Amino acid sequence: MSLIRNVGTIGGLTLVSRVFGFARDMMLARILGAGAAADAWQLAFQLPNIFRRLFAEGAFSAAFVPLFNRRMSGPGSEAEDRSSAQTFAVDVMSVLLPVLILFSALAMPAIVWLIDDFGQGGRTNDFTISLARITFPYLTFISIMTVFAAILNSVSRFAAAAAAPVLLNLCIISALLFVLWTDGGADPRRAAYFVGFGAATAGLLQMAWLFYWVRKAGFRFALHRPRLKPDVRELGTLILPAVFGAGIYQISRFIDLFFLGRLPEGSFVYLAMADRHNQLPLGIIGIALGTAILPALSRFIARDDAGGAQRVQSNAIEIGMLLTVPAAVGLYFAAEPLATAIYLGGKFDAGDVSMTAATVAMLVTGLPAYVMVKVLTPGFFARRDTRTPVYTAGISLMLNIALNLLLIPTMGVAGLALASALSAWANCAMLYVLLHRRGHFNIEGDLFWRIIRIVFSAAAMGTVIYGLSPYLEDRFGGNVGERVTSVLLLVGSGGVVYFGLAWLTGAIDRTKIALLTRKAPAQDQQA
After folding, report:
1. What is the pLDDT of residue 425?
2. DSSP-H helix ranges across 57-136
3. SS in 3 state form for 312-337?
4. Which of 277, 292, 392, 455 is exposed most, by the fewest CB atoms within 10 A?
5. Phi, psi of 509 (to 5 degrees)
6. Confidence at residue 292, expressed as pLDDT on a 0 to 100 scale
7. Are the beta carbons of 462 and 332 closer than 8 angstroms?
8. CA 380, CA 277: separation in Å to the nearest integer?
9. Over the stretch 127-154, which tens digit does the pLDDT of each residue have?
10. Is the pTM of this model over 0.90?
11. How far apart are the C-alpha atoms of 403 and 164, rounded to whole Å?
């Protein structure tokens, strides 16, 4: 069951990062609040971060990993194949680095102007532009790190790349602690500058961290003058459609920024804080699954083993649904209590909490779909089909824009979150139907009924959380001890109900649990 072990490694380290991320956002909420400085910081940070996620967790990996694996499994000796793969990686980085530098230097002010209601929203000012210039080098550092991460993932060394985001949160937390130590956070603009420098420093440290592990894996790099070799051109032709196919969530987030620039002050903050809740299960489960199954799928398809490919995606969907359905239901019903316990305090008041909670509730309705897109898309990329996901992603994007126009006037930022969720479900449905019609994958009866049991167990959990929340309401905004104990009690009660029912009803596959406690057969280890 190497898939489960790999997902566990990636997901566990991502969990550590997300926990530090919550600590980071708790401090940001209290120090920056939801005013103009906070909006400027969120805009300046989210721009490179969206491009980072698009590359690191989407287009680049989806296109690079199959090509790199093809060279690692070439017709020559092991040393020759490794040398060929290394040369390909060096060629790619030699072209990627100058492109990133030019993009960071030239595109940033224009993007801020575009998002800021064409300069009319009040955010296209010296403060926001200078803050964005500070944070944008993060994109260059982190994209080079993406190459290193893809190499390590291709040789099934997932831990180093999954641990790297911890450095980002530690750097930002350190910057915030320095602000508190020097002036107590009295000046939000000054705090935002320090946080921006912390983010840029984190990108450099993350790149250095993975460079060390790639060298330890036996790869060496010496950059040369950029040359568009045939291998690099092939990668380029795969990346553009992969941007749409694997990165639908991040492209939707970029479109969201455009609409946020036309909403009242604080909207950037509310969506960012809500997305922290969404990113916790998405990162632990969805990104981990998508990262882990792409190399395995590529190997099975290269051997023309349709059964192995079916087994990998079935296992991934089962794991994904088992964990994301209860996460979505739990976050929906516990949105207000969690937002109160985590964010309320300092410059973040009850009104800000209410707006954040409403956004969380709408955003997480699409959580299972976000994860399933991560699981289904590799079924196309592993077969070197990057065109089909482009079409489904394009339709979903058009739907997302239409829903934004329909829902935002009445629901505000919460409507924007709901539009994103609905478009993700549409994309998920189209991807599955196309895989099914082509005979590449289908949800078999056993998996279907297991998903039904998962939904039933999650619904019971949601009922418990909904009924228990009013009795703990006063404690969610109390002292630290009261907040922690009330959240643990609420989440723990829901978890006991869900996993208890999932075990009793068979939503949890007991045979797979048994395999985890003993040495797995060879064929299962391949899956």
Report:
1. 93
2. 59-72, 78-106, 108-115, 126-135
3. HHHHHHHHHHHHHHHHHHHHHHCHHH
4. 455
5. -75, 105
6. 66
7. yes
8. 29
9. 888 888 888 888 788 878 877 887 887 7
10. no
11. 36
Please report which helix (H) or strand (E) contains residue 292, including its range. helix 288-302
Helix axes 248-260, 367-376, angle to 10 degrees: 140
3-state secondary structure of 345: strand
For residue 370, which amino acid is it? Y
User: Is 323:14 a contact under the CB 8 Å cutoff?
Assistant: no
CA dihedral 37, 40, 44, 46 (to 10 degrees): 100
* Residue 104 contacts residue 51 (beta carbons within 8 Å): no
Statement: residue 9 has pLDDT above 70:
no
CB atoms within 10 A of CB 19: 13
The CA distance from 469 to 334, in Å, is 8
Residue type, 50: I
Amino acid (one-letter) located at 481:
G
Residue 524 has pLDDT above 60, yes or no: no
d(Cα 124, Cα 377) in Å, to the nearest integer? 37
State the CB neighbour count (10 A cutoff) for residue 430.
19
| 374 compared with 104, residue with greater pLDDT | 374
The pLDDT value recorded for residue 443 is: 82
Query: What are 526's two structure tokens?
Result: 């391949």
Q: Which segment of 14-18, 93-97, 183-187, 200-204 scores lowest on mean pLDDT? A: 14-18
| CA within 13 Å, CB half, 324 | 32
The pLDDT of residue 415: 94
Query: pLDDT grade, residue 1 (50/70/90)?
Result: very low
Give 509 or 458, the one with higher predicted confidence: 458
DSSP 8-state secondary structure symbol assigned to residue 513: H
Amino acid letter for position 321: M
Q: CA 119, CA 190: separation in Å to the nearest integer?
A: 23
Please, are residues 88 and 68 in contact by the beta-carbon 8 Å criterion?
Answer: yes
Looking at the DSSP assignment, which residues form a beta bridge with residue 345?
Answer: 348
| Cα–Cα–Cα angle for 388, 293, 448, rounded to 5 degrees | 80
- Sign of the C-alpha dihedral computed for residues 21, 242, 156 and 207 taken in this order: negative
Q: Which two tokens stand for residue 8?
A: 């566990």
If we measure between CA atoms, which residue out of 152, 154, 148, 145 comes closest to residue 68? 154
Please enumerate in sequence order all residues whose Cβ is within 8 A of that of 366, keeping only pairs 6 or more positions apart, or say none. Answer: 420, 421, 422, 423, 424, 425
Cα→Cα distances 170→19, 42, 176, 190, Å: 11, 17, 10, 19
Q: Which residues have CB under 8 Å from 513's CB, separation 6+?
A: none
**Count of positions (residues) in the chain:** 527
Q: How far apart are CA 330 and CA 275, in angstroms?
A: 15
